[in-house]
Amino acid sequence: MSFRSLFQDVREAMDHVHLSGCLKEKTLENLEKYVVKDPRVPLLLSRMREVAKVFLATNSDYSYTDAIMSYLFDLGGEDKVSARSGGVTSAVPRAPGSDAVTPQRPWRSYFDLIVVDTRKPLFFAEGTVLRQVNTDTGNLRMGTYTGPLQHCAVYSGGERARA
User: Fold this and answer.
1) I need a labelling partner for 56 at 20 to 30 A (CA). Which of 98, 115, 150, 151 fits?
2) Strand, helix or coil at 140?
3) Which SS3 state, helix, strand or coil, does residue 93 take?
């Protein structure tokens, strides 16, 4: 067996797992097992936003992205509110062993730009139609989005030049 044929077999298997949806399905069924939370991530992103633009560009759809990011940014608290509500949810430690706290907030607020369904590498080449995502339903809004890109909004598709 050559490295080329091994690569092709692994590539085909990975493509099948991604296209069938079973990888994401199994991940969502057991987030604690497959996704590692780090309570320092919100602070890191906040500090990054103080000096630069922070963006998230993923090939995943909004529903999956929202589930993963909501899990990652839900760092505790009994009085939490849904991340989609836009409200402050609770207070969480800034770093392990630290007594300082920072208010927990919706994951989208940590990014200047969020683009799902990017279809990389197409996003970095000719791109696709840019549409806005209705974050309450996960559905795409009708038509091509041509307005200014908004903080906390989620977009689908598009191209690097627009971002």
Assistant:
1) 98
2) strand
3) strand
Which comes out higher in pLDDT, residue 19 or 40? 40
Instruction: State whether residue 102 is helix, strand or coil.
Output: strand
In a domain, 105, yes or no: yes
CB atoms within 10 A of CB 81: 14
Q: Are residues 129 and 54 in the same domain?
A: yes
Structural domain count, the chain:
2
Q: What is the mean pLDDT of the chain?
A: 84
* Integer Cα distance of 34 and 100 in angstroms: 29
The answer to whether 151 and 105 have CB atoms below 8 angstroms apart is no
Please calculate the CA angle 35-40-44 and round it to the nearest 5 degrees.
110
Q: Residue 139: which domain range?
A: 37-157
Give yes or no for a contact between 99 and 135, defined as CB atoms under 8 angstroms apart. Answer: no
Model confidence pLDDT, tens digit, residues 91-112: 444 445 444 445 678 999 999 9
Evaluated on CA atoms 154, 157, 160, 162, the torsion sign reads negative
